[in-house]
Amino acid sequence: MRAQFVLSEIGVGLRRNLTMTFAVIVSVALSLALFGGALLMREQVSAMKDFWYDKVNVSLYLCNKNDAQTGGQCSKGAVTAEQREQIRSDLEDMAIVEKVHHETADEAYKHYREQYSDTAIATVITPDQMPESFRVKLKDPEKYKVVATAFAGRDGVQSVQDQRSILENLFNMMRGMNVAALFVMGLMLVIALMLIVNTVRVSAFSRRRETGIMRLVGASSFYIQMPFIMEAAFAGLLGGLVACVMLLVGRYFLIDGGLALSEKMPLVNFIGWDAVIAVLPLVLVIGLLMPSMAAFIALRKYLKV
C-alpha cells in the first residue's frame, strides 16, 4: 500500500466533506468530554466518601433542662451524672466503637459561636440551651444503626444523629448529576455515530468512480476502505484531543482558577491533576476507535467491494 496515495485520499475526503467533518469533531468532542467528566465525577464522589466517611461521627445528644420542659423524649428531665457515665461506659464497651468524645454544653456553645457568629440567632443563644453530647467515632461508619438501636429512646438521650446521612444527600445529588451527564453523553454519542455514518456514506458516493477504477485494477477491499476509515479516525482523534483540552480547562477553571472551589471549599477533598490525566488516554483511544469502527461498519453496507 502506498502511504502517499492513502494520505492524499484522506485529504481529498476531508476537503469534500469539511462541514460534516467539523460536525463529527464537535459531536465526538462533546460526547467524550461528557464521558470523561462523568468518570471524574464518579472519582470525585469516591474521593469525598473516603475522605468524609473516615471523619464523620455518630452524635448522641443528651437531654438538658430546657428539653425537659418540652416533654417528648426528655420528659423525665435532664440527663443525670449517673446516666451520662453509664452511656459513656456502654459506648466504650461496644466493639464497633473506636473512640468516644464527650462535648459539654459550654464546648458546644463555643463551637456554635465560632461557626454562626454572623447570624442573628447567635446573639440570643445561651450555653444552657446547648445540648451536651457524645461524639462517637466508629470503626465502620456503616454500623451506625447498631448504635442508634442501642441508645435511641434511652433515658437521658435526646436523639442519635448520624452525620453520614447529611453527606448522603450531597452524594446522591452528585450521583444524579453523573447519571444525567452519562445520558447526555449517550445521546451525543448516537448523534456522532450517525454523523460519521452519513459522512462515510457521502464520501463513498462522491468517490464511487475512483473506487470503481480501483476495483477494476485489482485493489483489495482493505486498500479501498482504508482512506475512508482513516478519515473518520482522524476526525475522531481531533474530537478526542478537543475533549482532553476541555477536561483540563474545566478542571482548572472549576477547582484552581475561575470559580476556585479549592479555596472557597477547603474542607472538600477535590480530585487532583493525576485523576484527570489518567482519564485522557482512555478518551483518546475511544475517540480514535469509535469512529473507525463506525466507518468500517458503514463501508460494508455502502461500499461493496
From TrEMBL:
<keyword id="KW-1003">Cell membrane</keyword>
<protein>
    <recommendedName>
        <fullName>Cell division protein FtsX</fullName>
    </recommendedName>
</protein>
<feature type="transmembrane region" description="Helical">
    <location>
        <begin position="275"/>
        <end position="299"/>
    </location>
</feature>
<keyword id="KW-0132">Cell division</keyword>
<comment type="function">
    <text>Part of the ABC transporter FtsEX involved in cellular division.</text>
</comment>
<comment type="subunit">
    <text>Forms a membrane-associated complex with FtsE.</text>
</comment>
<feature type="transmembrane region" description="Helical">
    <location>
        <begin position="237"/>
        <end position="255"/>
    </location>
</feature>
<dbReference type="InterPro" id="IPR040690">
    <property type="entry name" value="FtsX_ECD"/>
</dbReference>
<dbReference type="InterPro" id="IPR004513">
    <property type="entry name" value="FtsX"/>
</dbReference>
<dbReference type="GO" id="GO:0051301">
    <property type="term" value="P:cell division"/>
</dbReference>
<dbReference type="InterPro" id="IPR047929">
    <property type="entry name" value="FtsX_actino"/>
</dbReference>
<dbReference type="GO" id="GO:0005886">
    <property type="term" value="C:plasma membrane"/>
</dbReference>
<keyword id="KW-0472">Membrane</keyword>
<keyword id="KW-1133">Transmembrane helix</keyword>
<dbReference type="Pfam" id="PF18075">
    <property type="entry name" value="FtsX_ECD"/>
</dbReference>
<dbReference type="InterPro" id="IPR003838">
    <property type="entry name" value="ABC3_permease_C"/>
</dbReference>
<feature type="transmembrane region" description="Helical">
    <location>
        <begin position="179"/>
        <end position="200"/>
    </location>
</feature>
<feature type="domain" description="FtsX extracellular">
    <location>
        <begin position="56"/>
        <end position="160"/>
    </location>
</feature>
<dbReference type="Pfam" id="PF02687">
    <property type="entry name" value="FtsX"/>
</dbReference>
<keyword id="KW-0812">Transmembrane</keyword>
<feature type="domain" description="ABC3 transporter permease C-terminal">
    <location>
        <begin position="183"/>
        <end position="303"/>
    </location>
</feature>
<keyword id="KW-0131">Cell cycle</keyword>
<comment type="similarity">
    <text>Belongs to the ABC-4 integral membrane protein family. FtsX subfamily.</text>
</comment>
<feature type="transmembrane region" description="Helical">
    <location>
        <begin position="20"/>
        <end position="41"/>
    </location>
</feature>
